[in-house]
Structures are given as structure tokens and as C-alpha cells.
Amino acid sequence: MVTPAGAGHVSTRDDVERAHLVDPADHTFAIARSGPSPDVADLVRRFWMPVWDVPDGAASEQRVLQYPVCLVVVSNTYARLYGVSRGTSATTLTGRGWAVGVMLQPAAGHLVAGVPVRRLTDRHVDLADRSLVPAIDGAQLTGRLREVMSPDPTDRAAQAEARDLVEDALRPLLPVDDEGRLVNALVEHVETSPGLLRVDELCERFGLGERSLQRLLHKRIGLGPKWLIRRRRLQEAADRLRDPDAGLATIAAELGYADQAHFTRDFRLATGLTPGGFAARFR
């Protein structure tokens, strides 16, 4: 008998930290995280604001098992709207810099881009290009964020003002449509139901046929329900592998994998690392 996925496991890390495939030996950056104002919670999951200082000639690669949501990221050098990445999203940090990152809700990517989010899967577009990001004035938002953050990106007042600017830019998209609220609820259910392993269980929970569910998720997050369930399992695996006492076979079984080999293959395909290689970072 397989233990339900996640049974008995209590994480001390938040979900953002679980998704970040951080190397604990990398001390070149710090990240401030915060939630949104209540009135924009249907559009925004959270903010993250990294500040980095990488020695000359060095680089720090940040890899993330991205959540099934679009991202808005404005840094001192670029401004982008990101679609969902099927594998890991990777950013290489060099020199000194900062960014204002916005993790949107599943409903919001379609509203910001104005097109089915599947067109953004595994790619990003320039936030300032109104033909690609018609719902907000990305150029104006980018300019204001850089004006606020550049003097001291670690200043909490500056970070709060940056959050306010982003929320003000997104508020005209409210209220979220019925389909958007449904996809928010679907994704939340997957992410908070560790025993959910099959698409038909998700269909039954929300009274949807599998084809209808497929169409909805491809439109609003860019990928299908099997990917959604697999991604949640991999993020939980990345969390468990940080525990020095965790065994690979036990993790595989508790996450619903048929055997350790299937778990290793899934994890390596998504992250480029074997579970053992990732776990060794924390030993």
C-alpha cells in the first residue's frame, strides 16, 4: 500500500522556497518576499525582490521549479512578462543588481497578455511592448519602479512603494472573470491536495470533463492537468530532499511514484539534477 502523497510531512519552508532550487553555499543574493494587498489577491500571489552582489568574473545561476503562473519581473536591466516554464526557469546573476518580481495568480496571465497563455509557455516577452502586453503600460511601470528602487533596493519603504505601483497597474483588471476564479480554485486545489494523483479525481472534484479541463488550463496557464499534478509532486520532492534524514525510496513512495527509478527520471528531466545530487547540497 502506497502512503498518500505528503502524508505525515510538515514543511518548515514556504512554497516559494521549496520551488527555488537554491544552492545553500551561494550567499551572493538576498530575497525579500511579501504578499499582496487583499483587494488584488485574485490577481497576485506574492512579490519577491532579490538583491544580488556577485564578485567580478563570477556568476550565480538561479533555478526555479516555476509554479503554474505567469510572472512579471522588472530589474535594473530588463522588464519581462514570463509564461510558465515546463522545466526549470533559470536566471544567471552577475555584478550588482535587483529585481521586482510578481508571481501572478493563474487567472491573471491571460488578463495581462490578452491571449491564451499557452502562447507564452517557455518564453517571455518585453513588458513594455503594448502589442504583446496590452493590459498595462509596461514602459511607464518599468520607469517608475526603477526610479523608486535604484537608490537603495534594500530599503523597505522603497519596496513597499514598488508593490503599490504594481498593484495600481493591475487593479484595472479587476474583477477577475468567472473562468479566472475557477482556474485559481483548480490550481489551489492541486497544490493543497497532496493525495491527488490522477486527472479524473480533479475532474470529479470540479464537475468538469477531461477535455474541458484541458482546454481551460491550456488557455489560462499554458499547460495541462497532468503537468500540473506532476509539478506539485516535484516541488514537494525538492522540499523533502533538503531533509538530511530523508531516503530517496521513501520520498518516491510517499509522493506516489511506482518506484525510485521513475522518481529519479522525473526529477532529472525537470531540474537537470538527480534527486541524490540535489540532496547532497544540503548534507
TrEMBL record:
Q: Which domain of life is it from?
A: Bacteria
Keywords assigned by UniProt, alphabetized: DNA-binding, Transcription, Transcription regulation
Q: Give the matching InterPro entries.
A: AraC_XylS_family_regulators, DUF6597, Homeodomain-like_sf, HTH_AraC, HTH_AraC-typ_CS
Domain named HTH araC/xylS-type: which ranges?
180-281
Keyword Acetylation recorded: no
Q: Keyword Disulfide bond, does the record have it?
A: no
Q: Which GO terms describe its molecular function?
A: DNA-binding transcription factor activity; sequence-specific DNA binding
Pfam families in alphabetical order: DUF6597 (PF20240), HTH_18 (PF12833)
Q: What is this protein called?
A: AraC-like DNA-binding protein
Lineage of the organism = Bacteria, Bacillati, Actinomycetota, Actinomycetes, Micrococcales
